[in-house]
Structures
1.
Amino acid sequence: MKRQFLDNFYHPIFEVQSGFNIGWDIAGIDETQIESLLRKPWTLDNLTFSDRIWRDKDQLVNELQTQLTQGLITGTPSNVLINNLADKLNTSKSNAARLVMTESAAIVAIAKEAVYRELEVELIRILATLDKKTSEICRKMDGIVIRIDDYKVGVTVPPFHPWCRSTTVPHFDDNVGQRAARDEGGKTYYVPNEMKYPEWKKTFVDGGDKSNLQEMDSTLKSFTEKVDSISGITPGYREVLIQRFNNGTNKAKEVFNRFVPNNSVSTGTAKGAWYSPREKRIHMNFVNDLSNKRGSGTTFFHEQGHLIDYANRASSEHISALDSTLNLDYNNLIRNTMRTAGTKRKTDAYRILGEVMRGEDRELLSSVSDILHGLSSTGNTSKIKGYYGHWDKGYWKSILPSTEAFAHLFEAQFDPARLAVLQQYFPETIKKFDDILGGLIQ
Ligand SMILES: [Zn+2]
């Protein structure tokens, strides 16, 4: 079959795969299957044949079916089909053109059903071309979502009338998190946002090279499902989160998938970011986190760290374990800083560490800065004043530094550079945290 015609079928698949950033070979779409579909009776009698101008309806239907099926399969340009038909049926070109275009749209719509079923798309949305010429019926149908089981060309899906320009697209309900399932056996890949249709087709339809694409494992798939269950996440932010997750340590990935439920974020437009233990959900701002100076997506993983901490409070001693290693690391850090600076006063160490935390690496050191802020707190004030910290009065009275550290340590599992600086300042705590993560997934 000719490329142009097949594009009608591959485009919805491309829309689905690129929409979810996942791709797989679609050998499942069988061209002979489409051809046999085309050979079934498909003419939209009451829509296009009601006019009296057609003297012999049976002859017309047969002729049209033969011409159109052959024409579409061989890729004959529609103007040639129109001329042939007008000659054979002794009718005007405009009548023939109306039939050819409308019936072609109907054929595509019929074959598209097979594509949607192949992709396990359950909901389909009607998409009208809205302009001054849009018909009354298409205006009414625009945006309507139907179930695949109600798919009926000419009734629930376009073409609704001659010259109909409406079409259909797969529909995904944000809150339901429906997604296309992948064929058993084949490999699944991560499809980057910038991949356009021609490149996608070369890769997944024509069996092109996939060495530059990242293979998607079940862990990543499980993560994307959790992300897709959260409403209000833009495609760009979604991709950032997926890439960040992908860079994570294996234990942290497993812990995330085990303990983070669907719909973990209750609002993505909050002022600030916090985890509510009462609601067991996160409030944050997706737009702010996308342009986060500390790294796009760090707040998302930090707040998920809080969620995971609270989800395990009843069955794990992880907070008290972190508490003791943090104090050990902190005392060593103060002592080493004094030794290096050749001073006997702790206040010098506090000042030096504060300066480093406010220095040019302050974004990279934001977690270290906050943890030191908490560990050096005397209640309402902290001895080590970096750039990042929980500055609100009394914060460190109500929240243990180890609680905040848990979220920082978890977030850093998805960012090697941030993990490396935490390792430098809190080596024993990093070791302990690795044990804790291991314990959570046992
Ligand atoms: Zn926090």
2.
Amino acid sequence: MMEGYWSLILYGIGGILATSVGLLVAFQEKLIYVPVVPGLTKSYPITPARLRLLYEDVWLRSSDGVKLHAWFIKLAPDSRGPTIVFFQENAGNIAHRLEMVRIMLQRLQCNVFMLSYRGYGASDGFPSQEGIINDSQAALDHLIQRTDIDKSRLVVFGRSLGGAVGAVLCKNNPDKIGALILENTFTSILDMAGVLLPFLRYFIGGSSSKGPKVLNRFVRSPWSTIDVVGQIKQPILFLSGLRDEMVPPTHMQMLYAKAAAHNRSCQFVDFPNGMHMDTWISGGDHYWRTIQSFLEENRGVFNLDFNALIIIY
Ligand SMILES: *[C@@H]1O[C@H](CO)[C@@H](O)[C@H](O)[C@H]1NC(C)=O
Ligand SMILES: CC(=O)N[C@H]1CO[C@H](CO)[C@@H](O)[C@@H]1O
């Protein structure tokens, strides 16, 4: 009688665990991608016009036909400055990044191209790793065929999830993109699963984690930047907020170590007060000057007019 009772409980616990893992596997895209922040709408709350930015709506088709929306924001109608392809962090849409992008334009004297990944903002479809990689390629292909920008000065900037997107795009396009900037990005979703759901740490993980990792093969969006970053030929700037409450700062350090082992033109800068989303604010002047000098040091590709910057600031 007693034995039957205990085995019932054990089966119960096993069943709950199996069901939870099953649900995690089935609904992982819902967990990994957050185009709509609870309490907000999927649509853009504002357009760049609200911030008096000069912009164009760009509609693209990804390679599998999904319709994508982007904003191309220009510093000036005839701007020949660098163009930064900005890949956003996970939650919300590109409109939520406009305040940062406005300052980016001013401080870096650049144009900014902002893509809504599939399922985000005004783009159709549903997010997936393969789909978003194709979307980012569609964005780059669009920029490459434009005649109003200096294509020798394309820089990719990715924050958090956007860093994973940008890293793959740079790896795949060594001759089209001049440099990469990564901010508070993670080594892989496999490692993040263990950070967010510690009970999974034994079953999911990257190369550095122990355990049988039997669930890895079920993860459809591993975003394993740690396996990509060593193959990137472009110079990389790592911007790491040491108070990141979401992605442990050790992830950025591991990515840097991997990249630097393969390419000397990598630079790592940390910001003691930087949190996951606000490093660009709390880093203050130092943050923007770091990016400016990274662009300046890679002048072979970029030709920022820093005298003009000094006049403005
Ligand atoms: C992504 O692009 C590849 C290569 O063009 C293609 O084989 C694949 O079907 C595409 N997948 C998605 C989801 O767009
Ligand atoms: C080993 C390697 O990939 N080196 C690359 C580092 O980056 C420069 C450009 O900054 C490339 O020219 C090298 O090939």
3.
Amino acid sequence: MTATENPGLAWEAFGPDGFADRLAVVTGAAGGIGLEAARAFHAQGARVVMVDVNASLLSQAAAGLPGATAVPLDISDDDQVANAFAQINAEHGPIDHLVHAAAIITAKRFLEQDVAHWRRVLDINLVGSFSVVRAALGPMVDRGAGTIVVVASDAGFRGGGGLIADAPYAASKAGVLSLVKSVAREFAGTGVRINALVPGPTDTPLHSTVSSELKQRIAAGLPVGRMGRPDDMAAAILFLSSPAARFVYGSALDVDGGSMLR
Ligand SMILES: NC(=O)c1ccc[n+]([C@@H]2O[C@H](COP(=O)([O-])OP(=O)(O)OC[C@H]3O[C@@H](n4cnc5c(N)ncnc54)[C@H](O)[C@@H]3O)[C@@H](O)[C@H]2O)c1
């Protein structure tokens, strides 16, 4: 058993103060799924550090969660990430839970894409995930405890080329799923757990340019008849971060209203 495992029955993990005094770091926390995950941890008693590149939105978001700390940074800058995580560990103590939700979505037609576009998407979504996971993982492994949830996407399985996600976005998310499995395999048994959350279409600011008509069409095409909500994702993130998921390693949890049924 490690500090983040519950020695009793797995379901006992969920209580009103399930994450009391734990330190949760959430990237992409200025909006959408990341912000909702930060809210969920905060409501469960955790100390929350919120990371995002959008400094003004981030400080507004953090102001809504008393005691939360905002750390503006660009996850595609490896030095910024390493320095910020070292500072978080120094100032707030060891990170118990990392949720990595920061990413961009792009929807360019394939023949209009160029190498610069692919590099930008992969730099932020995939290489940025490497930087964030590595920065959090080292101290967790040294301590023998910690959980990591990386937010992937159904596009990582389905591919892009549709209406809301293109090939480099989908490739970046397939890469993220593979990153999670690689880390899970290498670090299983250290006390650190890593898993991927696989959202289907979810109504967040990521789709701010998608028309409400297209959102309705997307919702109608899903078995449950609605798009996901950020709190649907946050609940699953809490589960994956909790001792209730103590035997869940390197998994890709579909939270998509039955969209993939894989
Ligand atoms: N909304 C969906 O339908 C959906 C579906 C599948 C997967 N996802 C994934 O969920 C995660 C959260 O997305 P969301 O829907 O909440 O969208 P969102 O746009 O609300 O959140 C993404 C956040 O990441 C931040 N970000 C972007 N680039 C960054 C960078 N370089 N450094 C630091 N922060 C950066 C943005 O500022 C934003 O606040 C993403 O990984 C996304 O790919 C979303």
